[in-house]
Amino acid sequence: MDCIFCKILSGEIPSKKVYEDETVCAFYDVDPQAPVHVLIIPKEHIPSAAAITPENSAVVAHIFEVIAKLSKELGLTEGFRVVNNCGDIAGQTVKHLHFHLMGGREFTWPAG
Ligand code: 5GP
Ligand code: ZN
User: Fold this and answer.
1) Catalytic: 98?
2) N or C: which end of the chain has fewer CB within 10 A?
3) How far apart are CA 98 and CA 104, in angstroms?
């Protein structure tokens, strides 16, 4: 499958990993939009948030446990932003479910 994140999981594309277990992986974004910018992905190829079902949703809960853990380890004690872009209209460029964990600066709301 021609998926950049599946290739990162297989090691075909190098990445700077910060966390990995049986079901999820977290690595630094190659084009950071904040001083800390990590992507957390399921190892299963789920194309987007629109493809989450009762059968595969447990990994999403686990991803948020990992986000809470990483936010502490990466020093984001003041807060952080978690983003999921779903679909072209929302700016999803990689069609493998991922959550952006960003911190180390202030964020405005609503996001553009
Ligand atoms: P999206 O736009 O789909 O929400 O987010 C995709 C993210 O993946 C972008 O922030 C982009 O910088 C990041 N990205 C794209 N290709 C690579 C890559 O090869 N390695 C890493 N570490 N990040 C990537
Ligand atoms: Zn994939």
Assistant:
1) yes
2) C
3) 20
